Write a sequence for this structure.
């Protein structure tokens, strides 16, 4: 009789452990799914923000081409004078972000009014805020300009 009683106790202990393990795995799976949803939602929000920003400047895109991390220089030397002027023309000021690592989102522009080059828009994002951007031609002898839509 004692052996049967011990077997029942052990079965209850094993069942309780299995139940606890199952509940723990369910909790972990739910937590991971919520985390992935939050990342997906944040990514979608940045995409919408970028598309809206480009649209507000008059640009039409064919979608996101690439995104990468870029570290801005600690100090903007004289070689950045033109680039900073392009940013300022569109209402951006990069100097507060010196030394920061930002995300550059690159979009292909569909409605550039002149030339036959492929044209890209780059947007710089820091902590889900667009801090800068430019329009550039894909060719080596191309151009770079502010996000303002050009007068034709």
């Amino acid at each position: 009789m004692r052996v049967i009683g011990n077997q029942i106790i052990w079965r209850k202990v094993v069942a309780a452990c299995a139940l606890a393990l199952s509940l723990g795995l369910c909790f972990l799976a739910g937590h991971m799914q919520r985390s992935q949803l939050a990342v997906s939602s944040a990514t979608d929000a940045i995409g919408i923000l970028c598309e809206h920003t480009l649209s507000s400047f008059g640009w039409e895109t064919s979608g996101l081409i690439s995104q990468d991390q870029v570290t801005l220089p600690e100090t903007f030397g004289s070689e950045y004078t033109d680039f900073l002027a392009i940013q300022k023309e569109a209402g951006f000021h990069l100097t507060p972000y010196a030394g920061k690592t930002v995300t550059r989102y690159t979009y292909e522009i569909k409605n550039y009014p002149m030339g036959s080059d492929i044209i890209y828009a780059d947007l710089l994002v820091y902590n889900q805020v667009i801090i800068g951007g430019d329009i550039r031609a894909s060719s080596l002898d191309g151009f770079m300009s502010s996000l303002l839509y050009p007068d034709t």
In short: DSSP finds two helices and five strands in the chain. Residues 17-21, 31-40 have pLDDT under 50 and may be disordered. Residues 2-56 form the longest helix (55 residues). Residues 2-145 form one domain.
